[in-house]
Write a structure and sequence with these properties.
13-stranded parallel sheet; two-stranded antiparallel sheet
């Protein structure tokens, strides 16, 4: 099912039942960690110790002046909408070890903001790669990918690998598809599999 534009889905669990309700998306959960690496499920990563949920509009911006990373590595993570930007230095959200990062309204990667898939899964209606945004790594994207002016790079930044997009892929003139090729045998070049 899909959620109406401008609404978020809230899941209420009580003993042996779950209820769904539609609510307004919530602003307020901000990335506040100054250390180089943090965990999505670590309370110290977020303002007021609130881990983002499916109703939260999450903006992660690097303001430290050094490369930073927050990993989804020990549990699935959710947000209503996610924007990642680096500004002063790269800001990377890693989705690792078979875990999933899911959004209801979409993901925007801009200005040195990135999502790295390390055998992870990104589920979202749309990944929008804006100027200097980067989606890279080995894993699966369930949703549409629009490369406006950013870069899609399947596989790790060093070495060959693959990414699967279960959705549509569109690339505008300013966008880039970056693949590595070290030979013509399987495992010697990057692959993007698209099933949209």
């Amino acid at each position: 099912f899909s959620v109406a534009p401008g609404l978020a889905l809230d899941i209420l669990t009580e003993e042996n039942q779950a209820r769904l309700r539609f609510i307004q998306p919530q602003l307020g959960v901000q990335y506040t960690l100054q250390a180089p690496v943090g965990g999505w499920m670590d309370e110290g990563t977020w303002s007021d110790g609130l881990i983002p949920g499916i109703a939260d509009i999450v903006k992660i911006e690097n303001q430290s002046g050094q490369a930073q990373r927050v990993d989804v590595a020990n549990s699935n993570a959710f947000a209503h909408e996610l924007t990642v930007s680096g500004a002063a230095a790269p800001m990377i959200v890693g989705v690792c070890n078979g875990f999933r990062l899911s959004t209801v309204a979409g993901v925007t990667l801009a200005d040195r903001g990135a999502v790295e898939l390390v055998d992870g899964l990104l589920t979202t209606p749309l990944v929008n790669l804006e100027a200097c945004g980067l989606l890279y790594g080995q894993g699966v994207v369930v949703g549409n990918v629009l490369v406006n002016a950013g870069t899609l790079s399947p596989g790790p930044l060093e070495g060959a690998g693959g990414m699967t997009v279960i959705g549509d892929y569109a690339q505008l003139n300013e966008g880039r598809l970056l693949v590595q090729i070290s030979g013509d045998q399987p495992g010697e070049f990057d692959v993007v599999q698209i099933s949209g």
